[in-house]
């Protein structure tokens, strides 16, 4: 088990290193000089000024040296300095992280709180009219783009109920009410597809388990169907849902980019979006690596917990 | 004596398990009626097929179907609500939303089709190679690269690549392909590894089938079904991703009508003119829903066991 | 010598060479290995097996699961590449020849599977399944092939209406009949039956066994009959090989082995047959304990010594070899001929 944990962690680090290399190489492959692009707006820039700025940003070094210094910095938590703000990238990410984490966790909570009961109901009453409608609803939930759903919610909550969101963002520790009022709609929109995915997965894994031999044995002893599904099938069918949530976390992280831009939430998503537009490459690089790291970490955690929960899994 | 209630499937099996010389009279469904059988067994799938056909017709015939030029700006009629003249209203530049939505179907379809072609071919190729050489260094390298691509949240990867390449339909296709390749690779590789171990492949070898015959008669037919299912689901995902990119302003460049861009343009005037964002979003959602339903229906239909 | 006679072929008077000659066959499967993982010793599935099979003869191969009998069957058909040793089919060594050279031979040797349904491509009809071997080997014209399919189905006791159906529409016994029909399409000289009846109900087992027996009598096919059930093997076989952990423990005529088992393992196997227990009073009642050891770490000396009730010192160190004893061959130190040693 410990050997398995170590191997998985090392593999996660390897993938993270590959991500870094990929992003770094792609950034260096783009046509156009970063410095010139950045100075393009300012008139009358001399070659000496360009060179000075390039030297300051370390862009005059060979690519491999730049890569090496970036990697050695990244290991100690230093992801470089923003071209735009001249602040350390790590500091910018840490400042933006809480809002994104809050949004992501709210979305996950929403998806579990609604998705699990829906899936169970579907499984208990499977092939009934209710089940068929719920199935259709969950396919719809997966199909509706979250940004459109968010726009619909804003529009019709305002038109029909006269409810509109606070205009200025507040961190939860500043004003929890305002914060939640802002977070509610994006979290709902973001969690909808995960919710639908959870209920679908739970339904099908429950049906799979209920058709297995051990459940048939329980049934043959005369246990009521409800008990069979909740007590005996429940534990075994929740495991795939757990893995699914790990994977859905990636979608939710990605979704924050769009929703944070729509709702002007100062999180990682809006940070990477503005940085991409500004061509602030150190920040883009740092954000992509950070997103990758979070995703890898969450899935590592899921796998490890999975290994603890499911005694059948033997990782030699 | 027997307390255990037999399930329907068991009873069905028992009904034919009397090993007499006359097999039970079960008619073989003719292959050419597969579509008919699909329509009968999967009503949602049939509905999805109809919707997709409409969608394709819309995309193909939009110059004739659209009441107005999608780019024409009617100065006098800005942000008009839906009316007999403009069935879906007009946008902030006085353009007809219905016409733009019809043309948006074309953009959406083109991008998704090209992405599927590029990403699908590369992914299936890599997956076949990977599965064929399962466990060797070729497989290892391909899988590491795929793991890397899959470990970056898709929108972040898209944003990164599309922004670097610049907004154009071609670059959108390239960026989206990066999402498609790992998916097709994973499924193709898994299926190849699974099929390789099937007893019927060993039986084919025992009979004397050549590797080529095994690949074409045993590998591909058993591989195509999951790939069709995946293709349908991925197609839906690509339509969302394309509109997300356009929504963020780094996908399809203006003034080409694109559902994602129309949504972001409409989001500025949601409370005064909700129709600008509503209709393209509806068209997008329904199209995506159709492809997802089709994928689900095909999966249920193609599952040889067909339980549930 | 008598030794080679017993090992080689059923009828001493037979002049012609055996159809199949297996010599010192070895198959090791590598285990594990890779990043951060130690490579384990290989699984010794088949570890030095020799036997021969005459034309029209049925050789039974028995052993517990994990004894390597299925692997041996696959090696004989060159569905697996052996680690060492040779398989000679009708005078041709097929262990080293290329697959393209083996292909024409595949027409002459066929395999019957334990689970027939999984050995059929689920997307092919019975007709397509039966036609395929003939198509692959270019036998007959389309009309002849079609007629042959009907003939074969008739031979295995199925109506021609089965042709249009798919494999999953048949019961186990029916599917196995189709499996037999498929194996017969090319008029093979050797049939390897890998647990061909183990998955069937007892009554249907008997039907299928009778079918196989009558086919053999009509067509003079040689059978390599692999099974874990000694009763089944005795019924159909002329000679029986008992296999334990990749090695042959005992070889002999099937009646002789049933009546007078020599090897403690064979004795234990025969005792485990419920119906025979009463009549086998000659055999001491010593239960077989434990499970078959891990074939990647076989015990030293006689591989059976960990479970053998009659173990003595030599068993832990020396590997016993097959020796002739009253007409059968036994690999056990109890029967070691003192004089020749």
Briefly, what CATH class of chain B? Answer: Mainly Alpha
Nearest-integer average pLDDT of chain B? 78
Residue share in helices of chain B? Answer: 55-70%
Q: Superfamily at the CATH H level of chain B? A: MetI-like
Ranges of chain B where pLDDT stays below 50 over 5 or more residues in a row are 1-30
Largest interface: A-B, 54 and 47 residues
Q: Superfamily at the CATH H level of chain A? A: MetI-like
Q: Which CATH class of chain A applies here?
A: Mainly Alpha
CATH fold-type name of chain A: MetI-like fold
Please supply descriptive tags for the structure shown above.
heterotrimer, A: 316 residues, mainly alpha, MetI-like fold, 78% helix, C: 341 residues, alpha/beta, Rossmann fold, 2 domains, four-stranded antiparallel β-sheet, globular
Would you mind describing this structure in some detail?
Chain A has 316 residues and is an all-alpha fold. Chain A has one domain: MetI-like fold. Chain A has helices at residues 2-29, 34-39, 47-57, 63-75, 89-124, 129-143, 146-161, 176-210, 213-220, 225-263, 268-278, 281-309. Chain B has a single domain, classed as MetI-like (MetI-like fold, Orthogonal Bundle), CATH 1.10.3720.10. Chain B has helices at 8-16, 34-41, 43-65, 97-132, 137-151, 154-165, 169-197, 199-207, 211-247, 259-266, 275-302. The longest helix of chain B is centred in the C-terminal third of the chain and has 37 residues, at 211-247. The model of chain B is unreliable at 1-30 (pLDDT under 50). Chain C has an eight-stranded mixed sheet with strand order 6-7-8-3-9-10-12-11, sandwiched between helices. A four-stranded antiparallel sheet of chain C has the order 2-1-4-5. The model of chain C is unreliable at 1-6 and 8-14 (pLDDT under 50). In chain C, 31% of the residues lie in helices and 22% in strands. Chain C is globular, with a radius of gyration of 21 Å. In chain C, α5 packs across α6. Chain C starts with a helix and ends in an 11-residue tail after the last strand. With 341 residues, chain C is an alpha/beta fold. Chains in contact: A-B, A-C, B-C. At the A-C interface, loops of A face loops of C.
């Amino acid at each position: 088990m410990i050997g398995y944990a170590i191997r998985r962690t090392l593999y996660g680090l390897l993938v993270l290193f590959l991500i870094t290399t990929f992003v770094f190489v792609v950034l260096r492959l783009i046509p156009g000089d970063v410095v010139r692009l950045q100075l393009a707006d300012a008139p009358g820039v001399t070659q000496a000024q360009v060179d000075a700025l390039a030297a300051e940003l370390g862009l005059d070094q060979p690519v491999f040296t730049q890569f090496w210094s970036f990697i050695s910095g990244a290991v100690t938590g230093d992801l470089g300095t923003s071209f735009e703000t001249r602040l350390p990238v790590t500091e910018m990410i840490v400042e933006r992280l809480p809002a994104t984490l809050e949004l992501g966790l709210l979305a996950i909570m929403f998806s579990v709180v609604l998705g699990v009961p829906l899936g169970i109901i579907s499984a208990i009453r499977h092939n009934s009219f209710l089940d068929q409608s719920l199935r259709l609803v969950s396919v719809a939930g997966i199909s509706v783009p979250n940004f459109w759903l968010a726009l619909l919610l804003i529009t019709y909550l305002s038109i029909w109920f006269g409810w509109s969101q606070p205009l200025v963002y507040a961190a939860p520790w500043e004003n929890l009410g305002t914060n939640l009022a802002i977070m509610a709609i994006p979290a709902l929109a973001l969690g909808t597809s995960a919710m639908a995915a959870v209920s679908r997965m739970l339904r099908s894994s429950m049906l799979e388990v209920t058709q297995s031999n051990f459940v048939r044995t329980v049934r043959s002893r005369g246990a009521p169907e409800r008990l069979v599904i909740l007590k005996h099938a429940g534990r075994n069918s929740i495991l795939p849902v757990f893995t699914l949530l790990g994977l859905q976390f990636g979608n939710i992280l990605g979704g924050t980019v769009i929703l944070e831009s729509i709702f002007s939430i100062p999180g990682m998503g809006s940070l990477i979006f503005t940085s991409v537009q500004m061509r602030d490459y150190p920040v883009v690089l740092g954000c992509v690596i950070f997103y990758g790291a979070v995703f890898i970490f969450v899935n590592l955690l899921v796998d490890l917990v999975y290994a603890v929960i499911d005694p059948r899994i033997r990782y030699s | 004596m027997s307390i255990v209630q037999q399930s329907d499937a068991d009873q069905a099996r028992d009904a034919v398990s009397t090993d007499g010389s006359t097999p039970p009279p079960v008619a073989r469904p003719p292959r050419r009626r597969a579509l008919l059988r699909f329509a009968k067994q999967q009503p949602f799938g049939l509905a999805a097929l109809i919707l997709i056909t409409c969608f394709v017709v819309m995309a193909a015939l939009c110059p004739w179907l659209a009441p107005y030029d999608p780019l024409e700006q009617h100065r006098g009629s800005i942000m008009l609500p839906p009316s007999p003249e403009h069935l879906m209203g007009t946008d902030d530049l006085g353009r007809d939303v219905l016409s733009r939505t019809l043309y948006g179907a074309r953009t959406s379809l083109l991008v998704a089709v090209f992405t599927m072609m590029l990403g699908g071919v590369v992914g299936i190729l890599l997956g076949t190679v990977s599965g064929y050489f399962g466990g060797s260094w070729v497989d290892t390298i391909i899988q590491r690269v795929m793991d890397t691509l899959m470990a970056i949240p898709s929108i972040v990867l898209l944003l990164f690549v599309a922004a670097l390449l610049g907004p154009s339909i071609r670059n959108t296709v390239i960026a989206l392909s990066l999402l498609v390749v790992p998916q097709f690779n994973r499924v193709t590789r898994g299926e190849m590894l699974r099929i390789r171990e099937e007893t019927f492949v060993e039986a084919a070898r025992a009979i004397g089938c050549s590797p080529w015959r095994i690949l074409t008669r045993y590998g591909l037919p058993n591989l195509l079904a999951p790939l069709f299912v995946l293709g349908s689901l991925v197609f839906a995902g690509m339509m969302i991703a394309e509109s997300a990119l356009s929504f963020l302003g780094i996908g399809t460049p203006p003034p080409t009508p694109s559902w994602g861009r129309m949504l972001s343009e409409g989001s500025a005037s949601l409370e005064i003119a909700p129709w600008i964002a509503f209709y393209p979003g509806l068209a997008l959602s329904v199209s995506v829903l159709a492809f997802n339903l089709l994928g689900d229906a095909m999966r249920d239909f193609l599952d040889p066991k067909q339980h549930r | 010598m008598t030794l080679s006679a017993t090992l080689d072929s059923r009828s001493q008077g037979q002049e012609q060479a055996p159809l199949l000659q297996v010599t010192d066959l070895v198959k090791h499967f590598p285990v594990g290995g890779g990043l951060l993982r130690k490579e384990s010793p290989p699984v010794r599935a088949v570890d030095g097996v020799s036997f021969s099979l005459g034309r029209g003869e049925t050789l039974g191969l028995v052993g517990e699961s994990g004894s390597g009998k299925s692997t041996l069957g696959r090696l004989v058909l060159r569905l697996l590449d052996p680690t060492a040793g040779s398989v000679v089919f009708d005078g041709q060594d097929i262990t080293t020849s290329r697959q393209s050279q083996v292909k024409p031979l595949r027409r002459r040797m066929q395999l019957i599977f334990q689970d027939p349904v999984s050995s059929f491509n689920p997307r092919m009809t019975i007709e397509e399944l039966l036609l395929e071997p003939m198509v692959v080997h270019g036998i007959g014209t389309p009309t002849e092939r079609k007629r042959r399919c009907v003939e074969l189905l008739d031979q295995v006791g199925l109506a021609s209406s089965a042709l249009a159906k798919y494999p999953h529409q048949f019961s186990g016994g029916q599917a196995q009949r189709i499996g037999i029909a498929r194996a017969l399409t090319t008029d093979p000289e050797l049939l390897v039956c890998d647990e061909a009846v183990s998955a069937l109900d007892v009554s249907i087992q008997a039907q299928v066994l009778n079918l196989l027996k009558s086919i053999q009598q009509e067509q003079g096919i040689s059978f390599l009959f692999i099974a874990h059930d000694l009763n089944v093997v005795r019924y159909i076989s002329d000679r029986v090989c008992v296999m334990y952990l990749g090695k042959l423990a005992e070889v002999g005529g099937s009646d002789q082995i049933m009546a007078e088992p020599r090897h403690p393992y064979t004795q234990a196997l025969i005792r485990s047959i419920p119906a025979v227990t009463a009549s086998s009073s000659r055999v001491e009642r010593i239960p077989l304990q434990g499970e078959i050891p891990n074939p990647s770490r076989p015990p030293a000396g006689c591989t059976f010594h960990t479970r053998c009730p009659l173990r003595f010192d030599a068993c832990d160190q020396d590997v016993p070899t097959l020796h002739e004893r009253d007409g059968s061959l036994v690999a056990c130190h109890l029967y070691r001929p003192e004089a020749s040693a």
